[in-house]
Write a structure and sequence with these properties.
membrane; transmembrane helix; 20 strands; four-stranded antiparallel β-sheet; Immunoglobulin-like; transmembrane; 832 residues; 11% strand
């Protein structure tokens, strides 16, 4: 077999891999010395998951229920145990390199696979792969800690390669590549990225279908689509443990909708929604003109945290304003005003953005030239997919289109942050640029073709520059923050000079972006001209493009990811997870059940650090239970309802002393793990239940909806009755009761019917939603043991699906290899 290998064909690919490896290592060199990134979301995840890891250290597996987040919630999306017959292909593909080197290397490798599927020369494939991997969105999300998003993005091009192979009748190789990367794509665990990619490949499939129908290739269409579906189902099944329990859980979360509308004005009943609230879902929409950040990274100021420097007019005017306002408002208010004034960012992504999706000016220009000049059966679906996802990214700025999608496109209303759809243009632009370069440089009579179409190339670039100039003229450079503008326009403030300097600065930034495009346009035009005149050879031209584009991207990337983002692991641990004196005082309490509300860390409901140490009333998670979110919004935001804290067994509240240091205060009214109530107040709906929670005594009264009345029984309060906690484990809770008459017990545990089962003396019993968010159970007279076990049936079902999918995975891979081997063997047998 080795004799058949043409090393002349292999070494360019090895060189490409070497280039990917060297650039990733050089760019992320601190990782080789053991340093790690400071990543906000990873710190949140460590806080969220510490309880699960503590449990695993004792029991050997992760729990299904997390007691440290939002008074308790499923652990599915935090940390999950399961069994698989598949190795860690991600580690294999990345050569076990440390993060974030592995992320950039993986993105390059997967895109390079795609370019080879399109029969693109290795040097062009290397250029395009580096462009995809080092587009600025990549380092931005890596620094933020969005690792699942990064992995899902990295696997997209390789999965696209597999599908293209299937559609081009290379069934065996296509099935193998599609099955492998469908499994990896879905296992990455970022449904929103996969969803956008699914839209992209759906558009591609429609274009292929039209072609197949016109050319009467119906049999091929059935085979190709069937194999693609098989690969997708195997990938889906292999990740069943992550998908199906989460899908079930999503129905009970804010992503599953709510029938209550809780605002600062009050609470009202609404029709049950099936997804996120529209205004919440359309946060982080991309401003229409911001799409040009693909070619102009700083046209809108970069990131929200990017500030004007000390030499700018805006900064100097702001300092004068600060001196004028000092003492007239609180330091916090002054700081807020100053940050708003000196922030460079003026785009539409609110409430904040970490930076643009810059794809490389040279890549954008080459892609546009490719779409206009080059003939390719792929260019129209690529253009359609790019434009469609750009429209999606506009979100609230193209409301009519996106509201239609929000209400009609399946599952789309489960996602937020429409600007994330720009990952598809990030995928498509370097691919189209590579297709274009392949035709322009390596097609038959390429130089003659270039000379013939050179004017069209000039007109194309000129047209793009004309569009940019029109956008420059039509842009609104004024302050979009109406309240800030109104504040600055007050006569006593006289902030007109600041407003004018901000507008001038914004015009300058956009104009500088156009200048950047002109500069790279000259490079492209001169390079293609010299090649057309045979002054430059193809390798020299492409190597120049590769170096220029990669250096340009790395220079911009360095703004968002550089050596300052790295630190030693022990330093990172100490800076984030060193217990305060308040934490240490609380940790002296070894009781098995109590909760903590941390008001010293800002918003307790976006804080995961407290969850690292304690069973927290707050926490951090993008998909909270909707009943708990309603409870937070109505009872724990603004003026906190102490009765709700008591029923949540909030024994400790962390606040700050006069010096701003955290202190732990004991709440003597916390009701403990469980208690018997004197009576039950029945209400007709969730609305009345949450309203009643606003003014009741949870120690004496339980609030239960009418529909559960048959399960509460007839109670006669017994003042001598007792209920005590016997054991408290994440997935199993036991209580002992003793009463002379039937009682109703309220348990300080969050109501979640999809898996929690109740047993009294080993016999399964009913429990009901109580006090809007807790559990309640009717207890018969006498001595009894109550056990709650979290045992969702979906877990066992999902594990079985994983086993089946894993077996199908290996069968499909083995079958594909056999078919490929058989085809290679056939000529030998024939010759023999």
């Amino acid at each position: 077999m080795l004799k058949k290998i043409s090393w002349n064909k292999v070494w360019p690919h090895l060189l490409a891999i070497g280039v990917f490896l060297v650039i990733a290592i050089v760019y992320c060199s601190p990782a080789l010395s053991g340093q790690v990134l400071q990543q906000g979301d990873i710190m949140h995840w460590k806080g969220m998951s510490q309880d699960a890891f503590n449990y695993k250290a004792i029991h050997g597996h992760f729990p299904l229920w997390n007691t440290h987040l939002f008074s308790g919630m499923p652990n599915y999306q935090v940390a999950m145990s399961g069994h698989s017959f598949l190795p860690n292909f991600g580690n294999i593909l990345t050569l076990w390199l440390p993060k974030p080197i592995s992320f950039f290397f993986l993105a390059c490798i997967c895109f390079y696979i795609l370019t080879q599927t399109f029969s693109i020369k290795p040097i062009i494939g290397t250029l395009a792969s580096l462009a995809f991997a080092y587009a600025t969105y990549t380092p931005i999300i890596i620094v933020a800690g969005h690792e699942t998003k990064m992995l899902a993005m990295a696997y997209m091009p390789a999965l696209l390669a597999g599908l293209v192979l299937l559609y081009e009748k290379k069934y065996a190789l296509g099935l193998m590549v599609s099955t492998l990367f469908a499994t990896l794509e879905i296992s990455a665990g970022h449904p929103q990225i996969t969803y956008y990619f699914l839209i992209c490949i759906t558009i591609m499939t429609i274009f292929y279908l039209v072609h197949w129908i016109k050319s009467k290739q119906i049999k091929h269409a059935i085979v190709a689509l069937s194999l693609a579906l098989l690969a997708g189902l195997i990938g889906l099944g292999s990740s069943a443990l992550g998908i199906f329990p989460s899908y079930q859980y999503a129905k009970y979360t804010i992503r599953g909708g709510s029938n209550l509308d809780v605002t600062s004005q009050g609470i009202k009943q609404t029709a049950k929604t099936s997804g996120l609230d529209e205004s919440y879902a359309f946060q982080y929409s991309l401003g229409k003109a911001e799409v040009f950040e693909l070619a102009m990274p700083n046209a809108f100021g970069g990131s929200t945290g990017n500030m004007f420097d000390e030499n700018s007019d805006v900064y100097n005017n702001a300092m004068q304003l600060g001196q004028q306002l000092n003492g007239k408002m609180s330091p916090q208010q002054l700081n807020m005003v100053m940050r708003s004034v000196v922030s460079k960012y003026w785009g539409g992504v609110v409430p904040f953005t970490s930076g643009p999706v810059y794809a490389g000016t040279l890549i954008v220009l080459l892609a546009i030239i490719g779409w206009v000049v080059v003939e390719s059966k792929h260019k129209w679906w690529l253009l359609t997919a790019a434009l469609f996802t750009i429209l999606m990214a506009w979100g609230s700025y193209f409301e009519s289109f996106n509201l239609f999608l929000f209400h009609h496109l399946p599952l789309y209303n489960k996602f937020r942050a429409p600007s994330m759809a720009m990952v598809i243009p990030q995928l498509i632009l370097p691919l189209m640029a590579a297709i274009g370069l392949q035709k322009l440089i390596y097609a038959e009579a390429a130089q003659a073709f270039l000379q013939k179409h050179f004017k069209k190339i000039l007109y194309t670039i000129g047209g793009f520059l004309a569009v940019l100039l029109l956008v420059y003229i039509g842009n609104d450079y004024s302050l979009s923050d109406a309240s800030l503008k109104e504040f600055l326009m007050q006569p006593q403030i006289n902030g007109s000079s600041i407003i004018h300097s901000i507008e001038d600065a914004r015009k300058s930034m956009f104009l500088a972006g156009i200048g950047r495009v002109i500069f790279f346009s000259v490079i492209v035009i001169v390079g293609l001209y010299l090649y057309a005149k045979k002054i430059l050879g193809p390798v020299v031209l492409l190597a120049a493009f590769l170096v220029i584009n990669t250096v340009d991207l790395l220079k911009v990337d360095n703004t968002y990811l550089n050596s300052s983002n790295f630190m030693q692991p022990d330093e990172l641990q100490a800076s984030s997870f060193t217990p305060t004196s308040a934490d240490q005082a609380i940790l002296q309490d070894k009781s098995p059940h109590y909760r903590v509300l941390n008001l010293a860390s800002g918003d307790p409901f976006t804080d995961a650090i407290t969850s690292y140490f304690h069973r927290s009333v707050g926490g951090y998670h993008p998909a909270k239970l909707s009943i708990y979110q309603d409870l937070i919004a109505s009872q724990l935001t603004g003026k906190i309802n102490p009765s709700v804290l008591n029923m949540l067994d909030t024994r400790y509240v962390i606040s700050t002393d006069k010096q701003g240091q955290p202190i732990a205060q004991t709440n003597p009214d916390a009701l403990g793990a469980a208690w018997f109530v004197k009576g039950i107040q029945y209400v007709p709906s969730d609305l009345q239940a949450i309203e009643a929670v606003g003014h009741f005594n949870p120690k004496d009264t339980a609030i239960v909806q009418d529909k559960y009345k048959s399960a509460t029984g007839a109670i006669r309060f017994d003042s001598t009755a007792s209920i005590k906690l016997l054991s408290y484990d994440n997935d199993t809770i036991k209580y002992a009761t003793n009463a002379r008459t039937p009682q109703f017990a309220v348990l300080s545990e969050i109501y979640y019917p999809a898996g929690w089962n109740a047993f009294i003396d080993g016999k399964k019993s009913s429990y009901v939603k109580t006090d809007f968010a807790l559990r309640g159970i009717a207890v018969p007279a006498g001595q009894h043991e109550i056990t709650f076990i979290f045992e969702p049936s979906i877990i066992k079902i999902s594990q079985t699906i994983v086993y089946i999918a894993n077996m199908l995975f290996w069968l499909s891979i083995a079958f594909s290899i056999f078919i490929i081997w058989k085809k290679e063997k056939a000529p030998e047998n024939k010759n023999g």
